[in-house]
Specification:
This protein has six helices and no strands. The protein is mostly helical.
Amino acid sequence: MALENILQPKHKVCFWLLLNDMLSTRNILQRKNIHLETYNCELCHLATEETLFHLFQDCPFAKSCWGILNLNTHSQITFREVILMLRDQLNSDFYLNVVILMCWTIW
């Protein structure tokens, strides 16, 4: 299977939403006045609000996912900076496909 056929439109849309701070995390739902029982991350037990930063960079689940690929993300930098850092760590022409699929997996 060719690598370019692995990414489906849903993966690309999810990643676009992530980059544009429009992915429906609990934090964004709260900003839209949608009532939930809790706005904390469902993937960890840290009682931390589910923001894009937490969900894709700081959550222990996300860190373990990136760790499977032997990649490290750093706190206190933007997700766009993380993408560039991952590009350097992966050192591959198809790094963005890997990043998009891992973000989909975390989501």
